[in-house]
Automatic annotation (TrEMBL):
PANTHER family according to UniProt: CELL DIVISION CYCLE 16,23,27 (PTHR12558), CELL DIVISION CYCLE PROTEIN 27 HOMOLOG (PTHR12558:SF13)
Record-linked Gene3D superfamilies: Tetratricopeptide repeat domain (1.25.40.10)
Keywords: TPR repeat
This protein's name: Tetratricopeptide repeat protein
Keyword Disulfide bond carried by entry: no
Taxon lineage: Bacteria, Pseudomonadati, Bacteroidota, Cytophagia, Cytophagales
Ranges occupied by TPR repeats: 89-122, 123-156
Pfam family, one: ANAPC3
SMART domains: TPR
Amino acid sequence: MALDSNMRTEYIKWILFFCVFANLGISQPANAQRRGKDRDKEPQKAENTDFRLIEESLAAEGMKFMMKDEPDRALPVFEKLVQANGNDAAGHYLMATALVKMEKFDEAITASKKAYDLNKENIYYAQQLAELYAKRRKYSEAAGIYETLLSKNPSNIQYGIELAAIYVFNDQFDKAIDTYNILEKTLGITEEITRQKQQLYLRQNNLEKALAEGKKLIASEPAEVSYRVELAEMLIANDRIVEAVAPLEEALKINPDEAQAHVLLADIYRRNGDVQKCNQELKLVFANPNLDADPKIRVLSGYLKMLKTPAELGEAVTLIKQLSETHPNEPRAHVIYGDLLARQDKKAEAREMYLKAAYADASDFAVWGAILQLDGDLNQVDSMLVHSEKALEVFPNQGMFWYSNGTAHLIKKQYKEAISSLEESLRLISDKPEMIPYINAQLGDAYNGLGEHAKSDAAYELALKGNPDDDHVLNNYSYFLSLRREKLDLALKMSEKLVQQHQNNPTYLDTHAWVLYIRKEYKKAKEFLEKAMLDSNSVSGTIVEHYGDVLFKLGERDNAVAQWKKAKRMGETTELLDKKIATGALHEQ
């Protein structure tokens, strides 16, 4: 039967394990060559051989279970082995190994310690016990064993590394550093050990020694640019900004294309408020396509906060555009570009960048929110509908996205779909209670569109309860009531409040005039319509048509017809308007 790679590894491991067991644990017959001289001891020798064979058989059986990853079956076999010969260290070692596999670490320590006490010269027993002590956070005991191992074999690097780690775990930083120093005498200056020592010095708040280690590393390999950059990073992180410039400039002399050095210099200039030098460094950084986006974005984010003048903003646009093009799959680059374009009020371009970010990574809630906001600002209802649906595919439980979707359906007069989305929004919007009145306002419009006036009125009432000064509701609710000739006192109260708050708004003045018209208060209606028509740039054909209706009621027939014709020229094309013009008489709905 062929073994797969994992089984083969386990098999080899346990073959080696068996060799260790055989060589270091169970005794071998010492005088097998002397059979001729010891024939009188043959019965005892045979008995010892039989006993040894039993032990080896038990060991082999237990290791077979271990190879099959069945330590629970191996353990009873190893226990029999220990019972057969309690003074044999290998049996206790095997027991501990099975217990470790079963994660019974305290019991494993007992068995492992027995093996170690019986044979302290065996490095396998010592290592197993030390590892168990460390696992159970008995760091002092673990350190004692590694200290012994290292003293017997000072050139063993692994012992030194393990001992230093134990010291770190036990917060004995000085001892850990001393151990690393001993290792350095054997290995010389190495990156790994230097980094460990630096971290320990920093944890001791000893920046000078951490910096000294960095300088030693540079001296050991003067051509290695990254060591100078790392030294500068440590200086910057500890607010030693001025000192960081020298190693960075040295790094760039060795390698002018070292992007991270340019990034750090740009960051230093940013901190110092030197926009021009920061910009120069960033140009060098952004021209490097091999540098990851992360450091570019980190520096750029701080750089953007420095920008004050339009000229500085213009230079930033060039950089960010380059960043976006260099890293087309990095959504953060597109978001930053979009943010800057939005600052410049370039809404369409900003939305394009946000969309690129969303297509690269659809999981950013804020990006979808920005897209939908810009859809609204741009009055692009079809886009809002499409984008809200895409956002809801990723965030089906976000009430704000349902609100945007409902709003788009409402504007397109798809009232049933609007109601469905707005009601879902209302159900989910608990985290933004301030939005509830606005949702109810939209529901009022949608229900009115379907002619469900009771539901419409109820929604408007809820909206006004949450926000009594909502212009949209005061206007629509009062106007719809006037069209239905219902609750006219309430309609008048709301329209009066509206024109008191917005005395020069033609739309609101027209609504109030129409409520007065329905109430047959034609002279008052005329006053408000004439006021609405003072701003010729804001007057709609509807207002002019209403003015004609009021004039007709006041007996000014010719003037009324003239106003209706003017309304038609302004774009009003209703059948009712055409009928009024043709007959010269008022035809009310």
